Structures are given as structure tokens and as C-alpha cells.
Known about the structure:
This protein is mainly alpha-helical. It has helices at 2-6, 9-17, 21-36, 40-67. Helix content is 78%, strand content 0%.
Amino acid sequence: MDTFNSLPRLVQIILLLIPGVNWVTELIVRWSAFGHKPGLIRLIIALVVTIGGFFIGWLDAIWCLVFHHMLFAS
Length: 74
């Protein structure tokens, strides 16, 4: 999670916009966030991303542009 947040914004957006890559990025970031700070919301988001990560990845790309971090992963 911290590694993703330390990447340049352009690299973050590119990783979240490419189908397939965004799902893998989401999986790594979400399960890492849950591992570092366990919580019910992070667990639910990690499970949802595991199943439907492509769409969540594009939502996170927009969220990352606006708020400079992924949804529920700050």
C-alpha cells in the first residue's frame, strides 16, 4: 500500500487504467492494506476487488486523480 502511494501519480493512474494490470494492482494494494490495518471495511473491499476488480480499478483511477489515494486504502 505504501509502495503504491509513493509512486508518481501518472504511474498510479496507468496501473489502474490497464485492464488486467488494474485487477492485479487492486489485489496487491487491497490485501496489503488489510494486512497492515485489519478492519471490516478493508476486508469487504478486498473481497469485492477479488471478485470484480476490473470495475473497481477504474473507479480507483478516478478516485486517485481527485484525492491522491485509492478508495478506502489511505
